[in-house]
Structures are given as structure tokens and as C-alpha cells.
Amino acid sequence: MSHDAYTRLLHAALGREEGAPSTPPIELASVRLLTGDPAGAPPSYLRLGNPTWEALERALGVLEDADATVFASGQAASFATMLTLAATHPHLIVPSDGYYGTRKVGGMLGPFGVRTTALDLSDAAAVRSALAHGPAVVWAESPSNPWLRVVDLQALADLAHAAGGYFVVDNTTATAATQRPLDLGADVSVTSLTKSTSGHADVVLGSVATRSAAVRDGLRLWRAQAGSIAGPFEAWLALRGVLTLPLRIERQSRHADALAAWLAAHPRVRRVHHPSQLTGEALALARRQQPTGFGPILSFEVDGDAAATDRILAAATLIRNATSFGGVESTWERRARWPAEDAPASLIRLSVGLEALADLTADLASALAVA
Ligand SMILES: *Cc1c(COP(=O)(O)O)cnc(C)c1O
Q1: Residue range 125-151: average pLDDT?
Q2: Of all protein residues, whose CA lies closest to atom 1 belonging to ligand 1?
Q3: Is the pLDDT at 41 greater than 90, yes or no?
Q4: Is 45 annotated in the active site?
Q5: SS3 59
Q6: What average pLDDT is seen over the chain?
Q7: Catalytic residue at 104?
Q8: 206 ligand 1 Cβ < 6 A
Q9: What whole-number distance in Å separates Cα of residue 352 and Cα of residue 362?
Q10: 115 pLDDT higher than 90
Q11: Does residue 99 carry a catalytic annotation?
């Protein structure tokens, strides 16, 4: 009998043999004793493999029905994906409105022969014409960070594949608990585990899921040889976090939907960016892609300049001013404080934690009431 996906996630990393530890060990040893031929033996050197990452990879693999490979950070995961695919597909088509670090690292590959084109990926004609210039990787992010824009993943997968390209989705904002890009045509799903997936704002890690053995092997070769490995302790923390991901995301998604609606009706709020605020066919697409919820983040623009926006942020007594997202406590920030971010001065990105909805609503109400 096949168990429910959440049941499988909870048990993926655990042994059942007599004497098995109740949680996977944190193995810190950099070397294991080895006599003779390493072929077929467990990895004898930590850069090549470690049972603690493998436990995390088994859990992440269950979430996406795929092979997961963990890296030192989300950026290391993106970078290894770009390098693996660029060997045959040296043109990277990235969203002009997604996470700026993706565009940055893509651009840094320019001197090594990789061309990066930043586009509005909802413009199918623009994507099609970019794909006409040789083998490419289409790299989507949906919902995007920080605008929470949704693009049609299956349609982009079809466009990329029709041109002989790869299709990659940065699934950090959605997480595998709400969206499974590999089921929507993606070849590769990249996640910064630093955010919602580990969920407690205490590790920096990334992962890549794929059902292609060739891509998986390419990623693992880059990891082993270039060395962007996960530390065992971080991997253990991320595993502990991921076991509650579906529960956290379910509550955070419900509360984020409610707060998006509440903010949209607030006189001080100009615009709210969240999939729940879409209508018609766009809302139907968003719900098809993320059937279990839209996750913890939303962004909104308030009336006023940067200084007025900062006064609102400072007036909260519960929501804390911090970057990143997906932790158990609510945080928010004015995105334009980051020089590389392309956002209006009054755009606030809010990450909804696990607090009671009434407490968060009251905190927002009093913060938005400051002069
Ligand atoms: C944070 C983030 C990354 C980068 O992850 P790190 O773990 O910080 O390296 C990539 N993509 C998105 C959408 C992110 O939010």
C-alpha cells in the first residue's frame, strides 16, 4: 500500500532496524576509515557524501518525487544548476522581476560564455523569440519574489522543450508543499531551503530536485569537485524543519490570504501583491499550480515615501524588521532598502509567521495608523 505523501515525508529519513537511532545522526567526521578500493564503499571523505545530507535528500526527494541534491545555499544550488545545464545550453533566459541574485549570478557567468537574457516571462512571444537564438535554459520563478507574480509553468515548459531547451523553476517562494514544478513540466526545481522549507531562520542551504539522472549526476559532480557542500549540522536542522513544512505552510497560507484581503481594503494601502488577489483565469491558474495554498509571503505598497514606510515598519510591536522569509515568526521589510532590488520605495514584503491571525491583524492596524 502506498502511504500519503506527508506520511512518507515523515518517515523518509528514518531506519526501522533494531537499534536504529530515532533521528538521523549528525555525522561530522571529515573522513571514514577505508581499506583498499573506494568503489562501492560509503563515501570516505565528507566533500563526496555524508549520511546527514543523504537523510535530508531522502525527505526532500519525497516532496517532489525526485532525486534531491543539497548545496551550501540557494545561490550555490542555482549556480550548480546553471553550470550543469550551460555546458550544452549556454543561454539563460531569466525573469526580469524575480529574485535579483539569480540575474546577478547569471550575469557573472558572462565572461565564461553564458549569455543571460532577462525577460517578462508572461510574454510568450518574447520568450519564443529569445529561444530562437540557440539552446537555452528558461528559468522561471512563480510566485516571484518580491512581486508574487504567477506565470503559467506548463506553458513555459512547453515553449522551452519545443525549442530543445531546459526548463528550471525556482520554487523557493512556493515550496514543494504547495507547488511541484516537476509535475508541471519542469526539468529542474531549485529551492533556497534557507526560507520556508527549513522554516526557522537558522540555516542557509539550498537544494535541487530533478527526475533526470544525467542532470542529477552533473549537479553532484559540481558539488563534489567545486565543493559547495552542505554542513552536516545545517542539514540536520533543515531536516528537522522540513518535517513540519506542510503544517506550517497550511496555516501561513490561510493567514496570508486573510491578511492580503484585509490590507487590500485598508485606506493606507495602494496595492497588494498576492496570488489570492488575482481574479478570473489568472486566479484559476494560480490555484491549479498551488492547490494547497500560496505560502507565507505577500507584498504591498503603502501611501507615502521611504521615510513614511519606514515609520510604519518601526511601529509594529510583533512583526519584526528583517529580510528573508518563511520563518515561524512574522517579519517584514522595505525591499528598496537593498540597492540591487528593483522595487518602489513604499513596497513592503511581509512574511507571515505562525502567530494568531487576530494578533497580526491588530499589529498591522496599529502600525498603519502611525503618521
Ligand atoms: C533567498 C532566495 C534565493 C537564494 O537563496 P540563499 O539560500 O540565500 O542563497 C534564491 N531564490 C529565491 C527566490 C530566494 O528568495
Answers
A1: 96
A2: 192
A3: no
A4: no
A5: helix
A6: 96
A7: no
A8: yes
A9: 14
A10: yes
A11: yes
